[in-house]
Design a protein that fits this description.
The structure is a homodimer.
Chain A: H1 3-13, E1 16-17, H2 18-26, H3 37-49, E2 53-55, E3 68-71, H4 73-84, H5 95-106, H6 111-136, H7 157-189
Antiparallel strand pairs in A: 1-3, 2-3
Helix pairs in contact in A: 1-4, 2-3, 6-7
Chain A binds a DNA duplex (30 and 30 nucleotides) through helix 2 and helix 3.
DNA sequence: ACACTTTGTGCACCTGGTTGCACAAAGTGT
DNA sequence: ACACTTTGTGCAACCAGGTGCACAAAGTGT
């Protein structure tokens, strides 16, 4: 049950219409919670019905008419509660790891190509994040490489938290890049064949 | 569509009944793909109907009667194809990162406790993996700390792949431990308050 | 006036995972 | 003989996310 909270967060940062939200999900928010525009509209409807958000009365509602939403006190309260609440981390569920495990049984034929493909994808994603970091967080240290110590302005608490989240994304991509590299070396060391030795 | 493949893999490693599979999912398989026993039974039914697996004729089927399955050639072929096929990595979707981002907007009240709780959970999981590694892979190097170079036997290819998968799990847990530690330091540096500065 | 594209909203359906519960056989204690 | 627990199988309902498609208004070119 995270999508409504993702939307509330986005709406608190800036009141938006459904399509604007969808675009923001494709960018900054999407790197830790993705959603399609259909999901977003559906959820906006629910949030409005439950009194968490309200449509700004810019134009009277009609099918193809833009509709902007803002968060109501109830919505903010809901979000505040959710942030501090308890919710266990969900167990890992990764298809690639599963495929690797399956390859231990049926052989690694064709796997290396797929691993290389994933490697390229993760390298690309990492590079994109690095760009975002350079743009939005002016290359401050964090986990990243060091740049010239040209701090323009002391970052706000909110900035530091957002940077932290981005860094988690970068760390994850780096993890996969490293792991895939290691996996490719491991596999090429002893080519393949159904089941080991 | 990974659960059927997870089951095929498990069944190839050793023919089992539904409950045995469920138990194995709670242990080794569960660290990258979890499933409840209900899911497993449902999927076993589908796999049998589609000719990928077959029930061993130990007893004639009845409601409370144990039923063991083995993989048929069609099932092995299906799995082999899946291993080498294309399947993009799914975008990250992590509720904790989302909550952190929300905290940047509504404040970090109550968050540190939750972060500490997650930290403990991940440390625990990492320790469990380390135990498994020591038991099943006799503490060979990998990403882990070095032990005495007492290689008992050269590992098979299958062993090395399974170890690789386990190491990915360990790397992930380590990532969260490190990130949570950093996050806690970052937050305690400037206590809280709704929105930054 | 007309077709075409872009921006914007939304429904209907499907799928995979989760929860709750029920049913059946076999073993265990009294 | 009886109740109780353990082992084992399974259905039904639900829920969140994903896909496909439709509809509406406004702008753009000819």
């Amino acid at each position: 049950m995270s999508l409504p909270h993702a939307i509330l967060t986005a709406l608190l940062e800036r009141p938006s219409s459904g399509l604007e939200l969808a675009r923001r999900f494709d960018r900054s928010i999407g790197y830790f919670w993705s959603a399609t525009h259909q999901q977003i509209y559906r959820e906006l409807g629910r949030l409005e019905r439950s009194g968490c958000i309200r449509a700004l009365a810019s134009q009277r509602p009609a099918r193809g008419r833009k509709k902007e939403y803002e968060v109501l006190p109830a919505g903010r309260a809901e979000l505040t509660g959710w942030v501090s609440g308890r919710e266990d981390p969900k167990p890992v569920r990764d298809a690639l790891l599963l495929r690797m495990r399956a390859a231990a049984v049926v052989g690694t034929d064709g796997l290396p190509d797929e691993l290389r493909r994933h490697l390229a994808l993760h390298e690309r994603q990492l590079a994109d994040y690095a760009d975002i970091e350079a743009r939005d967080f002016s290359g401050r240290p964090g986990t990243a490489a060091e740049t010239t110590p040209e701090r323009t302005e002391a970052p706000t608490e909110a900035d530091r938290l957002r940077h932290l989240v981005l860094r988690a994304g970068m760390d994850l991509e780096r993890l996969w890049v490293d792991w895939l590299t290691e996996a490719l070396r491991e596999i090429s060391a002893a080519p393949a064949g159904p089941d080991g030795a």
